[in-house]
Amino acid sequence: MDVKVYVENLSGGYSNKKGQWFELPVPHSELVAKIGIDGVLEECIITDYESPFPIKETDSIENLNSFVSEFQALPDYIQKNAKVLVENFFESYEKLVDDWNSINFAASIESNEDLGHYVCEELGAYTIPSELKVYIDYAAIGRDYGINAMVVFVDGGVFLK
Question: Are residues 86 and 96 in the same domain?
Answer without folding.
Answer: yes
